[in-house]
Write a structure and sequence with these properties.
Elements (H helix, E strand, L loop, with lengths): L4 E3 L2 E3 L5 E6 L9 E7 L6 E6 L5 E3 L7 E6 L4 E6 L8 E9 L1 E4 L3 E5 L2
Parallel strand pairs: 2-11
Antiparallel strand pairs: 1-3, 3-8, 4-5, 4-9, 5-6, 7-8, 9-10, 9-11
């Protein structure tokens, strides 16, 4: 079972920044495509950003130009740098790893509010 441990969430004012991290000890990290999703209560989980096993990123229109996804192989860590945060970015964020099977982190809360 692959374990993904997320960190870095919290409360931030509109216009501020946060960086989420997702770490694993499993070497499957190197050959996996990964992603960040987010979900609000009573809503479907929404894809935020993806990155291929070799580092090619892609973003949803709602975060393009504000968020940056990176895959640090040396640390086996996926990150999501979130800048210019807006109240509508408030959600629980989930790390996702796909390699034949699919694995999820436990979720981490991000609240954007003044």
């Amino acid at each position: 079972q692959v374990q993904l441990v997320e960190s870095g969430g919290g409360l931030v004012q509109p216009g501020g920044s946060l960086k989420l991290s997702c770490a694993t000890s499993d070497d499957i990290f190197f050959a996996s495509n990964m992603a960040w999703y987010r979900q609000a209560p009573a809503k479907q989980r929404e894809l935020v950003a993806t990155i291929t096993y070799d580092g090619q990123p892609n973003y949803s229109d709602s975060v393009k130009g504000r968020f940056t996804i990176e895959k640090a192989n040396a640390k086996k860590t996926l990150s999501l740098q979130m800048d210019d945060l807006k109240p509508e970015d408030t959600d629980v964020y989930y790390c996702n790893l796909k390699r034949i099977l699919e694995y999820w982190g436990q979720g981490i809360r991000v609240t954007v509010s003044s």
